[in-house]
Amino acid sequence: MQFAEPATLELRQEDQPMRQKPFAPPAKNLPPRSTLINRNIMVSGRRTSVRLEPEMWTALLDIARRENQTIHAIATLVSERKKPETSLTAAIRVFCLAYYRSALGDKT
Q: What CATH number corresponds to the domain at position 38?
C-alpha cells in the first residue's frame, strides 16, 4: 500500500500560532493545584455544589445510568441517608465505593 505525498501547508502571517509566555512553575509556598471538579447538582430540590475527582463523577454517572436515575436523584438519596456530621461529598464517595463493592459481591 502506498501513501500519497504529505501535503504541505503554508501559513499566512495571521495563521501563525501566537507566542505564549514560557510556563512558570508555581511559587514554592502555594499548595499544588487540585484535580477536583466542582459541579452544581440539585439535592432535595436545592442547588448545591460538590467537588469530586473526575473518576468519582464518572462512577456516579455510571451508577445513575445503571439504576435509570439522575445524578441529582442519587445525590438526594445519599443526602437523606447520610449522617448529619458527614459531608455530602464524602457520603457520595462512600456510596460509590459501596455500590461497586456490592456489585462485586463483597459483603465486608
A: 1.10.3990.20
Query: Strand runs (DSSP E) across the chain, as ranges?
Result: 37-43, 46-52
What cell numbers appear for 18 in the block?
A: 501566537
- Residue whose grid cell is 441517608: 81
Q: Phi first, then psi: give them for residue 71, nearest 5 degrees.
A: -60, -35
Q: For 12-29, what is each residue's pLDDT tens digit?
A: 555 555 555 565 566 677
- For the chain, what is the radius of gyration of the CA atoms? 23
Which residue range forms the structural domain that includes residue 93? 34-103
How crowded is the C-beta side of 74, counted as CA atoms within 13 Å? 22
